[in-house]
Amino acid sequence: MYILKVVSHFAAAHRLLNYKGKCESLHGHNWKVEVEVSAKNTDHEGMVIDFKELKDLIKQCLVRLDHTYLNEIPPFDKINPTSEHIANYLFHQLEKMLPSHVSMESVTVWESDTASATYKERHEK
């Protein structure tokens, strides 16, 4: 099994609904996003997926979130824009975009240097 990881970033504002504490107020983060994908085999060039292609797919997902107020963007206009929900959202968006031989492993969203949330599922391809 081959596992590739790409790290990217986005910045956005949000507020947590029904939360008793500072995060209920509007605030922002510079989120770090780690994406892991896997495949059983490489292609004829010896790659699971070209890193450039994977980075471009991630960028397509993050551009929708970057420098926005997340609470106004679907699905976060209906669910709390927590790091957990952001990781889940990115996982499923990217999963739809990957070539069929590549599986999503996980998405980790860091809201600070010391706090992150990871979302993953098990899929065999």
List the keywords.
125 residues, alpha+beta, 2 helices, 22% helix
Structure description:
The protein is of the alpha+beta class. It has one domain (2-120): Tetrahydropterin Synthase, Chain A. 22% of the residues lie in helices and 34% in strands. It has two helices and four strands; from the N terminus they run ββααββ. It has helices at residues 51-62, 83-97; strands at residues 2-14, 27-39, 103-112, 115-120. It has a four-stranded antiparallel sheet, covered by helices on one side. A hairpin with a 2-residue loop joins strand 3 (103-112) and strand 4 (115-120). Helix 1 crosses helix 2. It is elongated, with a radius of gyration of 15 Å. The model has no long low-confidence stretch (mean pLDDT 94).
CATH topology: the name is Tetrahydropterin Synthase, Chain A
Low-confidence stretches: none
CATH A-level architecture: 2-Layer Sandwich
Mean pLDDT across every amino acid position = 94
Shape category: elongated
Radius of gyration: 15 Å
Distance between termini? 11 Å
Number of strands: 4
Strand residue content:
25-35%
